[in-house]
């Protein structure tokens, strides 16, 4: 029975060493990925120009981008801090187009509305 007690102690020590090694490992930062690839480009439409007057800027972003990644990308690229970020998904669909009503595949996209403070601006053009 004494042999079993020694093995348990050895297992506990090795388990605590593993926990210490994991806790001291450096954690990955959210800025470890390429922030330039998250924002595809700004959207210049009538609606986005009107919103730009109210410090709301519209960007086309990658399909798998999150609000936090968009926020970090805007901070890095335009040197402004967003107050709020809203994301809108436009799903891919089939539309009827032309005089003969042919079906056309419309590619989906993801838009991000970035809200800034009153004094902050982004020069898109």
Strand/helix succession: HEHEHEEEE
- Counting copies of identical and different chains, the oligomeric state is single chain
Large-scale geometry:
flat
Please report which band the strand proportion falls in: under 5%, 5-15%, 15-25%, 25-35%, 35-45% or over 45%: 25-35%
Percent of residues in helical segments? 25-40%
Note down, in words, how this protein is organized.
By secondary structure, the protein is α+β, with helices and mostly antiparallel strands. The protein has a single domain, classed as Alpha-Beta Plaits. Helix content is 34%, strand content 27%. It has 3 helices and 6 strands. A hairpin with a 4-residue loop joins strand 4 and strand 5. The protein is flat, with a radius of gyration of 25 Å.
What's the structural blueprint in terms of helices and strands?
Elements (H helix, E strand, L loop, with lengths): L1 H23 L14 E4 L3 H7 L3 E6 L5 H12 L5 E7 L2 E5 L4 E5 L2 E7 L10
Antiparallel strand pairs: 1-2, 2-6, 3-6, 4-5
Describe what is shown at a glance.
The chain has 125 residues and is of the alpha+beta class.
Main attributes?
125 residues, alpha+beta, Alpha-Beta Plaits, four-stranded antiparallel sheet, two-stranded antiparallel ribbon, 6 strands, 27% strand, flat
């Amino acid at each position: 029975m004494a042999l079993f007690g020694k093995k348990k102690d050895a297992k506990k020590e090795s388990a605590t060493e593993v926990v210490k090694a994991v806790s001291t490992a450096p954690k990955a930062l959210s800025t470890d990925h390429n922030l330039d690839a998250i924002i595809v480009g700004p959207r210049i439409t009538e609606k986005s120009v009107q919103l730009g007057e109210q410090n709301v800027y519209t960007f086309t972003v990658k399909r798998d981008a999150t609000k936090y990644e968009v926020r970090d990308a805007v901070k890095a690229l335009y040197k402004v801090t967003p107050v709020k970020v809203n994301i809108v998904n436009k799903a891919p669909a089939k539309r009827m187009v032309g005089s003969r009503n042919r079906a056309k595949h419309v590619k989906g996209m993801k838009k991000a509305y970035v809200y800034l403070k009153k004094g902050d601006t982004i020069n898109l053009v």
